[in-house]
User: Which sequence fits this backbone?
């Protein structure tokens, strides 16, 4: 039976896009899509508060594809894209490009990702062909511009994705330099998970009378994700993590570490416990990161250890558990981290391993989200439970949560 895409049709999308949506089997648009698509189709600038996991990528790729396919301009010339999408990380650039390819499969539009960390020569060759949509991290884009490989004077549509992260990563000057090269008459869309005053100022410097949308209040977590904290002595964290992994045998976990070095050390130690685990962080080559992510996605690796930056934008369907091996110093990162689970109607679990020095960070997070994180003490792993105010003492491992069978990767079935 073919998927009913009438709700998408009502937003004004053309048949070539509706056919591609039908192939994905989405039954209805997400709130950010319902709110964003008609405005983008109309040519309006957009300021959108939306996190990863809300369907925001399709919220801009679908209408951008439509506008480009309908534009009467002459054909795209080599090295002169008509749409530029700026992303903070290579992973996000790759995912956005995948989205353009998925939804644009019945349209004659070409998209290409360019990002640092890989040899520039192949990207040089690729941009010599006509590319309609260029998805880029700022530094690599400027390299290609400096080398006269890419010209930005034909950009009709600019998208800045994860603007908050762009600023956090210090890309402001690069972006300002890029903006100077764009035609002033263009459509601009900006997406950000959070909205500080800095982001607002930045947004208004590049948007023109934007339509504003917000799909979830800032800094909220989903009700579908259960949050627990285990107080644990620092020296026992690794042993507790290994126990949690074994108790929930087979379930995949995305584990967050604070530093690249810490992530590597953790991987080494978990391997000694015969756990299949890989790391993804900024010191890994692009090839190694892509491979690790692919192995995690296809289920052949159970545990992926990541740093905040490397994990940004990673989209894994049906991820059952996120573990904060170390508590983030920036509370917003906690919200981003655990936003990887409890998506698309599935239940999720966020586990935080908190040592005594991190209790304040946990309380900061609770202040930010306005939610209390359940303290669960696991016997034998802590001597300081009163400091955390533990409410539950758990002697038996909790029963493993299982994804629905049809959702599990083949290796688990
Ligand atoms: P994003 O917020 O763009 O990272 O998207 C999160 C996930 O939602 C991706 O895996 C998309 O494939 C998926 N998605 C996007 N739109 C829909 C939709 N209308 N219905 C169901 N899933 C969707």
Assistant:
């Amino acid at each position: 039976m073919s998927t009913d895409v009438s709700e998408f049709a009502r937003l004004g999308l053309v048949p070539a896009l509706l056919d591609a949506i039908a192939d994905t089997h989405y039954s209805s648009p997400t709130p950010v899509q319902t709110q964003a698509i008609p405005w983008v189709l109309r040519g309006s600038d957009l300021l959108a508060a939306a996190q990863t996991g809300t369907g925001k990528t399709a919220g801009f790729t679908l209408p951008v594809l439509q506008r480009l396919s309908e534009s009467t301009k002459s054909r795209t010339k080599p090295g002169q894209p008509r749409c530029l999408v700026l992303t903070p990380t290579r992973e996000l650039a790759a995912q956005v490009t995948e989205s353009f390819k998925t939804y644009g499969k019945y349209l004659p539009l070409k998209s290409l990702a360019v990002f640092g960390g890989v040899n520039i020569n192949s990207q040089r060759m690729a941009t010599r062909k006509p590319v309609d949509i260029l998805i880029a991290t700022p530094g690599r884009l400027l390299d290609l511009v400096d080398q006269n490989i890419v010209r930005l004077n034909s950009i009709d549509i600019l998208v800045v994705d994860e603007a908050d992260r762009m600023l956090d990563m210090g890309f402001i000057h690069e972006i300002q330099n890029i903006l100077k090269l764009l035609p002033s008459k263009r459509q601009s869309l900006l997406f950000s998970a959070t909205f500080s005053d800095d982001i607002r100022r930045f947004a208004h410097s590049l948007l023109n009378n934007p339509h504003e949308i917000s799909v979830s209040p800032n800094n909220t977590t989903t009700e579908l994700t259960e949050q627990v904290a285990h107080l644990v002595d620092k020296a026992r964290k690794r042993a507790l993590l290994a126990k949690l992994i074994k108790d929930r045998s087979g379930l995949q976990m995305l584990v967050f570490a604070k530093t690249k070095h810490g992530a590597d050390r953790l991987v080494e130690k978990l391997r000694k416990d015969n756990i299949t685990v890989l790391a993804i962080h900024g010191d890994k080559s692009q090839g190694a990161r892509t491979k690790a992510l692919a192995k995690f996605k296809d289920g052949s690796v159970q545990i992926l250890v990541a740093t905040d930056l490397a994990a940004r934008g990673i989209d894994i369907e049906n991820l059952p558990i996120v573990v904060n091996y170390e508590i983030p110093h920036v509370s917003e990162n906690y919200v981003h981290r655990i936003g990887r689970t409890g998506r698309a109607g599935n239940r999720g679990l966020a586990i935080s391993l908190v040592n005594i020095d991190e209790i304040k960070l946990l309380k900061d997070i609770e202040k930010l989200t306005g939610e209390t994180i359940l303290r669960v003490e696991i016997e034998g792993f802590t001597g300081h439970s009163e400091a955390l105010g533990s409410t539950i003492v758990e002697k038996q491992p909790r029963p493993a949560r299982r994804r629905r069978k049809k959702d599990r990767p083949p290796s688990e079935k």
Observations:
- Residues 6-214 form a domain with the Rossmann fold fold (CATH 3.40.50.300).
- The pocket of adenosine monophosphate is lined by residues 26, 29-30, 33, 52-58, 315, 317, 344 (CB under 6 Å).
